[in-house]
Amino acid sequence: MCIRYLVGDLVGIRNEHCPHCGRFGERIVQRPRRTGTLVKVRGMLINPELIFEALSSDHAISEFQLVVRKSDPADPDSMDRLVLRLEAEAGSRARLAGEIPGLIQKIVMVRPEVEFCEAGEIHNPMKSVKIKRLVDERRH
After folding, report:
1. Contact call for residues 68 and 81 (beta carbons, < 8 A)
2. pTM over 0.85
């Protein structure tokens, strides 16, 4: 089998015996991650895919979206804000508001603000097929 990676992809490789076949050599020990979608927020390069992967595992969250914006839109030098918009069950919102910012901070070293949205606000399948998971509202 031949696996092709692009320049900049990250993959974990170990040089040891395979526990399944006993062969010695390089073997992939973690799933490859794309780095082409890195976004700079508050001086940190974050990989949104890591956040999306963590949020997808929580069944209380029906939709999510990351928004990067300036704290003062009129001032281009103001601090960046990472806002996590969630559509979630009403009964689990308090738990998510408490747990999710710390979880995301452990993953990407930036603590997001959490905003809860009504169902259909993040993604309306009648308007578009594809969900926009990352929105950068900063002026470039």
Report:
1. yes
2. no
